[in-house]
Amino acid sequence: MKKTIFFLIVILAMHSCFDPEPEDITRDYITKNITIYNVKLVIFYKDYNNQNKDTIFTLSPYKEIKQRYINRYVECPFGIPADSCYISFDESRQITYKRNDGNLRNILDVNNYEGGLVKGKWYQYKYYITNEDYSNAIVIK
């Protein structure tokens, strides 16, 4: 009997050492071009092998892209932390953002997105590329 009780205590102690696995969370990141310009969004980052990579999105006027991540660890708008990016408008103007640059319009910073919890474990965040962004962009020479 003492051995059985000891065995149960050991099993309960071992079980309490492990936290239960949290359920996955769904995060949608939507980027919408609400300008009259064609937009190219280029994101620069290093992959898991420390190789430089880039991702390019093109957005026609009033179109959007949506990225869905079902993973509790993904809290970056483009899946992994990016080093920098630029947004170009009709390839005539460009605005550049760098990770943690403090810019209130930085598309790489999820804090600059609107949204949050939609329902249950589903979150949705939206970022709008605006005419103000176009006005703040630098003319490409």
Give a verbal description of the structure.
Mean pLDDT is 84; it is low at 12-21. This protein starts with a helix and ends with a strand. The longest helix is centred in the first third of the chain and has 15 residues, at 2-16. Strands 3-2-5-6-9 form a five-stranded antiparallel β-sheet. The chain has a four-stranded mixed β-sheet with strand order 4-1-8-7. It has two helices and nine strands. The protein is 15% helix and 42% strand. The chain has helices at 2-16, 131-136, and strands at residues 26-33, 39-46, 52-59, 64-70, 84-89, 93-98, 114-119, 122-129, 138-139.
List descriptors.
141 residues; mainly beta; five-stranded antiparallel sheet; four-stranded mixed sheet; 2 helices; 9 strands
Are there runs of 5+ residues with pLDDT below 50, and where?
Answer: 12-21
Largest sheet, order of strands side by side? 3-2-5-6-9
Biggest sheet record:
5 strands, antiparallel
Shape: globular
Please tally the helical runs, counting DSSP H or I stretches of 4 or more residues: 2
H/E series: HEEEEEEEEHE
Secondary-structure-based class equals: mainly beta
**Proportion in helices:** 10-25%
Task: Kindly report how far apart the N and C termini lie.
Answer: 85 Å
Tell how many strands the DSSP assignment holds: 9
Give the integer mean of the pLDDT values.
84
Whole-number radius of gyration? 22 Å
Strand content: 35-45%
